[in-house]
Structure formats: C-alpha cells, structure tokens
Design goal:
Blueprint: H1 4-17, H2 23-35, H3 39-42, H4 52-66, H5 71-74, E1 78-80, E2 83-85, H6 99-109, E3 124-129, H7 135-143, E4 147-153, H8 156-169, E5 175-179, E6 192-197, H9 212-217, H10 220-223, H11 231-243, E7 244-251, H12 257-267, E8 270-276, E9 282-288
Parallel strand pairs: 3-4, 3-6, 4-5, 6-7
Antiparallel strand pairs: 1-2, 7-9, 8-9
The chain binds S-adenosylmethionine.
S-adenosylmethionine (SAM) binds near residues 129, 182, 198, 200 and 222.
Length: about 300
C-alpha cells in the first residue's frame, strides 16, 4: 500500500530529476487533480491510502509533466483573476502578469454600478483579440455584468477552449466566440467600445531561449511577434483606432513600452498610459479614442 505522502515524495523526486522547476508544487497539483480536490486539502490527507485506479490516472500526467508539458494543460482548471479556466493542450496557459491588463480595463470602464445607480441596460462591448483560453474577456465579463465580449482567435484549439470556458462559466448570453484574424470576424454593424489584447509579442529569435514548457510545447502562433516582437501591434493598433469607440488596451513585453506607446500615439490615441505588473515591470499600454466634441 502507498500513502498519499509517499506518493507525493516519489512524484516530487521523479519530477526533480527531470529538471521540473517546482517539483513539490507540481506533484501536489497533479495529485490534487486526480483526487478531484485542491492542493491545500492534501495536507489533511497524508495518511490516505492511494487506490490502484488513482495511481493509473496519475502516471500519464506525471510522465507528461516530466516531458515539460505546461502544468496548466494537465490540471483540470487554472485560476486567473477571479475565475477558473480549463486550458486545453495547444492553448497558451494564462499568466498572472495578464491580470494587470484586466485591472487596467476594469479601471477604464469604471466601477460596476450598485443597484439603482445606473442604467440597468448599459452595455460595454469588448473585443478580446487573441483570446486563447478566453482569460481576459471572460474575467472581465465575469467581473462586470455590463460587459459583452467578442472573443476572437485564429487558432481552432483556442476557439474550442474559449467555448468550453464560456459554457463552464455560464457566460454564453454575453460572449460570442469568433474565429479569424484581428477584428475582422466582428460584423461591421456591431459596435465595439474597447479592444483588449495580449497578442504574441516575443521576438522570433528569443523564443529559442525560453524554458522548455514554452519553447517546445506552447503554440508559436501565441508567442511569436516577428523579428522585433511588434508585428501584431503594428496591425492591431490602427485596426482598433478605426473600430473602437472608447479605446485600446494591450499587454506588452517589459521593454516594449516606448515602442508600443509610439504606435498608439501615431494612430491618434490619447490619454496614453504605460502601466506596470506586480513586479513593477512595464506590462500594459492603454489609450483612449479622442472625443470628437472636445477636440482632444
Ligand atoms: C499570447 S496568446 C494570449 C492568449 C490569452 N489572451 C491570454 O492572455 O492568456 C496570443 C493569442 O493570439 C492568437 N493570435 C495570434 N495572431 C492572431 C491574429 N492575427 N488574430 C487573432 N488571434 C491571433 C493566438 O492564437 C493566441 O491564442
């Protein structure tokens, strides 16, 4: 008989031998996934004997993690902002850094009105370009009942994953999932207030230097921003300027603030801000469409 604690130690040692960066944490996450519980509950179950079926379910997950598949693909859900997302293989695992973009957009839209404070029919239409798992648009929709989302991606895996998460979170009446490039899938007649995006922004040559989870597994379409990392911003910023009624907010690499800000400026966005993440590195550029009546 093997207890949960024995299994945890063996799994940790096996993952450590394969160079997995946080072997204890990942061993806990995988065992918790198989047992259908959360990591913290495991501490109360150390003496629990493990059943053969549980060991059979764990083995392939541990093997895949040893091959450096992203941990988010092996867990049932990943926490992002205030929601839990399923992340299918082939889809970028949402990063905590991206929560800075969600918070910047929430601040720009303004606080959720209390009961009786505002027009109950108020709507804010967002286009999330490159939605991946749906992280940004779904976190914003879950946090604010005014928000309606067009979640857009080029990748079939991302579209399927976002649809799965829309259903899990019960947001189907406020989120449309659309396949195609940039803003093109949103019919011309449909209004868009804010465009939000965490586009691919890693310079192509830098991809080879990334950790194996990213370099060997996560999709290149989600990461590769062309020779200088800015290719998608060059197309997205003018496209958003032409369609959005309120503004554009994008995630950036830590050293891309000045270049992306310049693209916003050249397209005619105003009230530009470069905002930091929790570590204090530049992470978000946000700008507004000028108000025609004020001349700004
Ligand atoms: C860095 S990932 C971001 C995923 C998700 N928004 C997040 O923050 O976790 C970029 C996503 O953009 C998609 N993508 C890349 N080029 C695109 C394009 N031209 N139009 C729409 N989506 C694109 C990729 O398939 C990928 O899902």
């Amino acid at each position: 008989m093997i207890t949960l604690l024995d299994l945890l130690r063996r799994t940790e040692a096996w993952l450590a031998q394969r160079g997995v960066p946080q072997p204890r944490l990942d061993a806990e996450r995988l065992i918790a996934t198989v047992l259908g519980t959360n990591r913290l509950q495991l501490y109360l179950m150390y003496d629990r004997p493990m059943a053969d079926e549980e060991l059979d379910a764990l083995r392939p997950l541990v093997k895949r993690r040893g091959e450096r598949e992203p941990i988010g693909w092996l867990m049932s859900t990943v926490g992002f902002h205030d929601i839990e997302l399923a992340v299918h293989p082939g889809v970028l695992v949402p990063r905590p850094d991206t929560e800075a973009l969600v918070e910047a957009v929430r601040a720009a839209i303004g606080p959720v009105p209390g009961p009786g404070e505002a027009d109950p029919d108020a709507r804010c239409f967002l286009a999330d370009v490159g939605c991946g798992s749906g992280a940004i648009g779904l976190a914003l929709a879950a946090a604010d009942p005014r928000v309606r989302v067009f979640a857009i991606d080029l990748s079939d895996a991302a579209i399927a994953c976002t649809k799965d998460n829309v259903a899990r979170l019960g947001l189907a009446d406020r989120v449309a999932v659309l396949k195609g490039p940039m803003l093109l899938p949103v019919p011309e007649a449909r209004p868009i207030d804010w465009v939000v995006s965490n586009p691919p922004y890693i310079p192509s040559d830098d991809l080879l230097q990334l950790e194996p989870e990213v370099r060997d597994h996560e999709p290149r379409l989600a990461l590769d921003g062309g020779p200088d990392g800015l290719a998608v911003y060059r197309a997205l910023v003018p496209a958003a300027r032409a369609r959005a009624r309120a503004g554009l907010a994008v995630e950036i690499g830590h050293d891309q603030g000045p270049a992306v800000r310049a693209l916003f400026e050249a397209a005619g966005f105003v009230d530009l801000k470069v905002l930091g993440d929790l570590a204090g590195r530049d992470r978000v550029v946000i700008g507004r469409i000028p108000n025609p009546s004020s001349g700004s």
